[in-house]
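User: Here's a chain of 249 residues. Predict its fold as tokens.
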Amino acid sequence: MISKTSLLIVILSLTHFLSDSFKESQLKYTRVRQAYKDKENSMLTLLKSKTLDKNSLKIYIRAFKKEGIIELWGKDKNHSKYSLIKSYDVCSSSGEIGPKRQQGDLQVPEGYYHIDRFNPYSNFYLSLGINYPNRSDEILGVKNKLGGDIFIHGNCVTIGCLPITDDQIKELYIFCIEAKNSGQSTIPVTIFPAKLTDENYKQLIDQYKGSSDKVGLWEDLKKGYDIFNKSKSLPSIAFLSSGRHKVYE
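Assistant: Prediction complete.
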């Protein structure tokens, strides 16, 4: 009969194996190993400056199209409030303000998303897939012509993606690896048309008041923007049958 101590050792060993499995699978790729060689120290320094531990890390990404910025936020998984870790400059853009509604429109999506893929052998160095089209996009976009393959990636070229430099994607990519490796099953990503301060929001609504599609989405994004800026905690998001969102604390 196995002793309680032996059983505990087996459980701890299995837990350690499972927690390391995603990172270890990523480290099989040359570019990921190079990213850790180049950026692990800077990642650890940033985490230390925010009193965060990579072994209990949860992250949140939000992007602002007008400003061309991607923000990386992090927290300990046992706490509720996030702190800003770093901002990255988007180095190329396509399309204009407003959501992506069909393949080939060159638009960068806007809305509530999450990272759904890690591509360590991307044509754009390293890339993090965004789950476009989400449920809202499927309802409001052009049926059967929604497109896909939207990423945060390197190489500073884009048709509807969010590119940053190869140097920056190395760092952001390994942050995401560490968060997933520490047990974060879903890394949320919110893409905004702009920073939705009251002033910016009013300007957008006034400018595009004839577009119920844009105005409705931005109203839902504004709610999430305000909740997060006030509490530094993520809002809850539900997709409605209309394509709109229920956004609440």
